[in-house]
Amino acid sequence: MEGTLWSYRELLAGDLSRERLRTALDHGDVRRVVRGVYGPGDLESDRVRALLLRLPVGSVLGFHSGAAMHGFGVLRSAAVHVIVPPGACKPRIADVVAHEAVLPTDAVMVSGLPCAPAARCAVDLARSVRRMDALPALDAALRVGACELGDLEAELTRHRRLRGICQARQLTSVADGRSECRQESQLRLVLIDGRLPAPEPQVWVDDEDGVPWYRLDLAYRKRKIGLEYDGVSHLDRDRLRHDRWRMNWLAAQGWTLRFFTDADLYRRPAYIVSTVRALLR
After folding, report:
1. How many separate helices (H) and strands (E) can be counted in the chain?
2. Nearest 5°: phi and psi at 162?
3. Which tens digits make up the pLDDT trace of 33-42?
4. Burial letters 68-91, b for 16+ CB under 10 A, else e
5. pTM for this structure?
6. How many CA atoms lie within 13 A of 146 on its CB side?
7. Which of 101, 142, 214, 254 could cross-link with 177 by S-S, CB 3.0 to 4.6 Å?
8. pLDDT of 134 over the 80 cut
């Protein structure tokens, strides 16, 4: 019985009547997981699997939810995103966003749930969300190894007529799996959109013996210019001490560093571009 879910119709088609179902619910032998879907009384909540039972046959997790299943869910969404087959009726279920597929979707099983392939999820996000969120999704897909660049390019070809595909194609050309967080990807995109050369992510700086000593978020290696995103973690006292030592050591090696915060990234992107442009000159 463990892991089993039934729809309301399946229960009534068996030995249970409506009255017996109510009794089973009252006694805890059966419980409702979501509206219209039931499971054994000792079953842990499995909202996503329950929701899939209410969707058209062939529906799969995609977009934000599919990306999360594949391990690159950097774009959070409270809703469950599903892709329904072409021509299927889009269900209206609370906290579910249904996307109708234009092309057939080859489902892959991830942790027992049907999902769109990782490259499909990444490209769907890249063409449907704003640029500042799209590149982090592509970078993350490459970083965790959910797909490779060739997989993304093949998916772009398959969906070349879809809305937003030009944005997805442009961002795929600059995607880099070395970026380690969303803000690093966004900082890199601000510079690219500002018509500056793309900085290299996660650059190690060696000591005099050639041993990798410190790593920079972004850098122009030949110019010895390092760019860092300062997040909340940098406010910790021990982290602050470490950062100051690191900054002094890098400066002694001839590196010029600039630090940017969330206020710069989301409110003053032009300031970032002008600052880095002045350094490159």
Report:
1. 12, 12
2. -80, 155
3. 666 776 655 4
4. bbbebbbbeeeebbbbbeeebeee
5. 0.80
6. 29
7. 142
8. yes
